[in-house]
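Figure 2 data, in text form.
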Amino acid sequence: MSTTIAKGDFDKLDGPAAPVPTTARLDVRELLRMLNRRKWQLLGVTVLVCALTGIVLVQLKPEYRATSLVMLDTRKAKVTNTTDVLGGLSVDIPAIQTEIEVLRSAYLLGRVVDKLKLDQDPEYGAGSPSVFGQVVGMIRATYEGWVGGAALERAETPTDNGPRARAIVALSRNIQIATRGRSYVIGVALDSIDPAKAKRIVNTITDFYLVDQLQAKLDANKRATDFFNERIEELKQTVAAAESAAARFREKSGLTIGKDSTIASQSISELNTQLIQARTLRAEKESRLVALQQAARNPATLGGITEVLVNPLISSLRAQEAEVARRIGDLNQRYGESHPRLLQARAEQGQIQGRINAEVAKIISSVQGDAEAAKSKETELQAQVDSLEKKAGGLGQNEVQLRQLERDAQSTRGVYEDFLKRFKELREQQDIQQPDARILSPATVPPGAVFPRYGLAMVLAMVGGLILGAILIGIMERLDGGFRTGEQIERLTGRAMVGMIPSLPRSTLGTLSPARFVIEKPTSAYAESLRSTYTAIMLGSLDKAPRVILVTSSLPAEGKSTFVSSLAGLIARSNPDKKVILVDCDLRRPSILTALVVPETEGTVDEYLAGSKTLAQVIGRDESSGLYYIPARANTPNSAEILDSNAMRNFVGALSEQFDLVFIDTPPLMAVSDARITAQIADYVVFLVRWEQTGRELAINALKLMRDQRKQVGIVLAQVDVRRHSRYGYGDYVYYYSKYKDYYTN
């Protein structure tokens, strides 16, 4: 991958990496790529769900639905003008819901069970349901919850376990009752494996519902008739006794009765009426007088008094006062306070106000006279009333008692007449009672089963399988802890990625090692990825190209030795005029000789540093590539002290002066501290991450160990599976290796 890194980017890479969110925003393209690379898992889950659904559907018995429509009758035919004992239905929502509860009641369903002998029907409680039947019931309930839309309500069921109770339970579970939209029509539906049986049961339910309504009205009418019949006889005797008592008292007291009362009472009543009117008039006059007097003390409120408002003289004076006030304002502004014209205007204003006050005083005097006249009239009427009441005092007690007797007799007769009238109406209604609902449509069974709906069920199974598969794929992706793209590496580590190295399958390598393969085939895709990595490393250091390059990784078996051997061999093979040396500083598990497939030297790097071997004895050269190499010895004691010695620093410094490039292979960072020690003498650190295998947290923690080195660190994603990587659809050069692999030579 050809990557150009700006100079300022190293300040970010060398310091502590900034915290980066661990989740990326998932866009549509990423989702499609994820589904594409795991399409077989998605297809497998979908096929499995569809197969299981098909197995279940084969086991289910088809059911047919019978539906009847019952309309609550809001247009009652009035044969008579009388009112029913049991009134018609109110057609509000609670009333409709009440009728639904009647239809689904255990009492009504029990009558249906008894008539049709459903307790002997295997479908309705003749035997206890099997486990499979219970499972089917659960599936059916769930299925109807999905596809039923405005699902019909189901009946509540009894709790005992006898044959009849089980039949009621089964019937209540199958019956479905609900209103049709916002109408007064109630739909009654039932599903059964036998269409004729479903139709028969629904018709029986609706018939019993109408009969129950009619029977309730007849029972109520009969109870009312019996009650009225008994009550009328009692009232008849009570009326006769009350009228006789009133007549005997009237004859005994000798009271003369006018049209509505006695003569004395009529006169007192008329005078009392006049007295009340006089008191009202007096109170009104006095209240007006009080209002005028209060307003006179506060001239600002005179405008709200009716007498003042309708007085034309006061209105004219107020207009003049307003004009004078306006002139006073103008003169005050023009001449000042002491000007003669201003003083004259204020005097004129005082005269007008005086006239207004005088007129108000006249009004007050007039209202006061009216109040006194009203009070005199009231006093006179009160005296007349007192005189009449004194004269009629002897007859008052008898009159009161007579009135009471007459009222009792009259009210008792009224009750008797009402009861007699209502009794006759009930007798007339006895034979013309009608239910408050009617069957709008008897039970019908459309062709085709309503359960199961095979096509819809398979479509839902396919959709459910796709959703379940997508969820499982998402979980698998979330559980994937490896690195797959450079974007992931840079986002999660805060470090720059300098290269992506494809893996070499055994069929491509044959008997060669990857390092020998790239040396012998320098134009292959594998070689081009190494060149791109080397170019990115060189361009990433604009001030001074690195001469000592250290390669490490998080853990063993991530391919760092293979990578550094291949990179060093390719550079030496492609640039004969450039001297390149590879030093194996993995003093615990060296692998340079194996990776390069070169012969051993007379000594190792630790022996040279100890002074027991010369440089000529420890250094070797691969003739086919021109690469120099220095091997190491396995399980070298005190490896960390050797690598941290001055001799090691001087040795690497001398190599960097003699060779154009010095590559150092070190142990993994998380295994031992050798790589951190050796990184102090390197110019550039290459951190290897194995594609899909290296854990993200592991790599991030390993990179944290390099923060104190203040070294330029570039990350290489190695052993990339080109074929699988292409499914991710990222636009890096490994992606194009899979698209244009014929461009490269093998």
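Caption note: The first helix runs from residue 9 to 14.
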